[in-house]
Amino acid sequence: MLAVLTADLPAELEEWGVEFKWDGIRALCYWDGSRLRLESRNRSDITARYPEFGSLGRRLGECPVIFDGEIVALDAKGKPDFNRLQRRMHVNPSRAAGIAAQVPVYLYIFDLLYLNDRSTIELAYADRRELLETLEIDHPWCRVPPSYVGQGAEMLEAAHEIRLEGIIAKRLTSIYKPGERSPDWRKIKVVSRQEFVIGGWTPERRHPDRIGSLLLGYYDREGKLRYAGRVGSGFSDEDHRLLLSQLRALSRSLSPFADLVPAGHFIAPCLVAEVEYRRWPPDGLLQQAAYKGIRPDKPASDVVREGKE
Active site includes 177? Predict the structure, then answer.
């Protein structure tokens, strides 16, 4: 289930539970009583990349469960850091244990979809949260983050103060709708950011082995890739190295965009980048954009311009 981007808090806050929006990657966690499996948003098996969660099943016992949550890496101040998480998202499973010791991650569990041979998705959000909290999950790398009823304004202010991405408001009576982007879940962002499809790139003028900018786009209702602008900041040395190898492998001669775009090297539009930006006018291009990382958990075909209701 996905949230709709909105500009304002819901009017009747006492009818909504509010959580912080965590800057990580979405994951479903399946435990059948003997085997743990983690799936990304595009249903890829990512279990081997995150060995620190392997012992979670033993803490749950024989009770089958399915959780919805977010895998998050924290910086030195304990704040979610998507750039840091990049080091775990793309690692070869054979190296996962070694990288895990250097860059540990947490599973923030915020919903319960199945418990004791019974689906819970038809239960109200408030009831699912109550069941989740009664499980009293005790694991060093797993947390159940709080949900507060009626405290949207306070949560939004706190997100702003500690520089989180924003908050998620969830209607207390809402059921869980798999695969849907529903107004029963609403995200209010402090920082503007979303995913974009990479359709091309330009090299740095003086350093051709470094990226000058990425050419970004999103799909419209007709399935055309529309040009959204460029991002030319936020790249680490590691980003330049890893991205260039991926970009060159996807090279193509023709632009994938439906619009006229700056000259550059074009690629098959299958890579998705997370980008933060200051402004994006309705009829203009991204302004003051910064690259945050590649999102292997989201198909490029799902990338659309997020609107505000």
Answer: no
